[in-house]
Amino acid sequence: MDAVTRIAMDNIADFANSKPVRPERRLAERRQYRTIWISDIHLGTRGCNADMLIDFLDHVDSERLYLVGDIIDGWRLKKKFYWPASHNDVVWRLLKRAKRGTDVIYIPGNHDEMMRQFTGLDFGGVAIRRKAIHETVDGRRLLILHGDEFDIITLTHRWLAHVGDAAYEFMMALNRWVNAYRRFFNLPYWSLSKHAKAKVKNAVEFISNYEEVIAEAAGARGVDGVVCGHIHTAEFRVIDGVEYYNDGDWVEGCTALVEHFDGRMELLHWADEIAARDLSEASATEPDEADIEMLAA
Ligand SMILES: [Mn+2]
């Protein structure tokens, strides 16, 4: 371990005791889950939807939290340092919940592969693991891994992965413009690349191929299912009797996978939740007919 890393690790406890720029909302209002899985946050990039993730973290709590990789984007940070206060606030919230007693398991991905050297270590209440087995409350065993291990492009053509990365970066920039425009006209968040991906035949094939390969590998290991991230496509499918879950990402889809206390699994689409909340708040402030009648009388 080098000196810089040691200093960083020593400071983690102090960091959780510091104050975030954006204060947390009250704990009592939070929805409770047995388990939460999130991945592909890509802190350190402009594409990261830190604001939406902060909103999510302030509304939910769980006994256990899995960080399923690509939490920090080391590839991008190496090229250009980008770290706004909101990204610090995400890290603060994650460490804070570990400190409050949530079981936090961090499985680094390919974009934060520099964290893989700490596999087996626990710091700041966060356990760093290469993969994990999660047992649901009704006894199903799920293999948890980031998933780049099964992505043939990142495995065999590292340079191509970087080209894909540049194209992806461009797409994300376009996504930000589209959504800045939509915000201006009070339209809800809309994922450009999510819609583009569904239209491109190759992308569709790549995704279903990836899902099948991972499910098959999990089945061969004798587990009931697999939870991964990596391809930024939230999904739940049963493939040859193996449950395949992908928790999505916080760049495009803004999704999380949760396990309820009865073992039921659910994909939360947080942009939709925010839109629904905004709508109900808007209708709550609009006077209904009875109020109007009272005013008239
Ligand atoms: Mn990845």
Automatic annotation (TrEMBL):
Coiled-coil stretches: none
State a single Pfam family of this protein: Metallophos
User: What keywords would UniProt list here?
Assistant: Cell inner membrane, Cell membrane, Hydrolase, Manganese, Membrane, Metal-binding
Q: What is its EC number?
A: 3.6.1.54
- Superkingdom of this entry's organism? Bacteria
InterPro entries documented for this protein: Calcineurin-like_PHP (IPR004843), LpxH-like (IPR043461), Metallo-depent_PP-like (IPR029052)
Please name the top-level EC class of this enzyme: hydrolase
Q: What is this protein called?
A: UDP-2,3-diacylglucosamine diphosphatase
Query: To which species is this protein native?
Result: Sphingomonas oligophenolica
